[in-house]
Amino acid sequence: MTIVNRTLSEQAFQIIRERILSNRMPPLTLLRQEALAAELGISKIPLREALTRLEQYGLLRSSINRGYYVPPLTIAEAEEVFALRVKIEPEAAAQACLEASDDEIETAKTALAALEAISGVDPQQTVAFNRAFHLALIRPGNRQVTYLLVERLHVLAERYVHMHLEPAGRDARALREHRDLLAAWLARDAKNVSLQLTRHIVLTLHDLRQQLFENETIIKSNVPPRPND
């Protein structure tokens, strides 16, 4: 029975995650748990497990009065998440490239190959493969605290990475940057790894600032004016 519940929970997690990332559940959508459980054909227990996990991934938030809802994408959150990545991830990857074993090198190569294969084909899966590639670059050295921190930041960045890759040509540019980054990492050029990864993260944030500004402007322009008292 436990295995069945976990399977249902995983299926619910994947379905809701895809809806959020594809904007079928746009920001501020309030989830009606009873209706959602009925639609998915599952009980509330595996659904709650899925919703809890989605909240941990930053794709949902909960409050006592509102229940679960899709949080808005904001410039402030993007700034915070990507600024923290810049502080931690480039140095971690630079140190890791000096300590990578043959197996860890093959893992990084495989991760990039998988990302290249899915890029432009499945936007929802692309963000997951993107995270796997970045994490493969910091795994060597067995710095568990650093690894967990970077993994958590990537999870929080998932919707923003998805948004960043939406404009035409972005996925191709990202792949070029990833190839250059991996080349420096494989050469064990720690300084270049740090520079390449810092640039990659900063450029992504730069693009997101413009996208989020335009998005917030559209939202504000569609809000009807308040009637005069």
Automatic annotation (TrEMBL):
It comes from Lysobacter firmicutimachus. SUPFAM superfamilies: GntR ligand-binding domain-like (SSF48008), Winged helix' DNA-binding domain (SSF46785). SMART domains: FCD (SM00895), HTH_GNTR (SM00345). Keywords: DNA-binding, Transcription, Transcription regulation. The keyword Cell membrane does not apply. Residues 6-73 form the HTH gntR-type domain. This is GntR family transcriptional regulator. CDD domains: WHTH_GntR (cd07377).
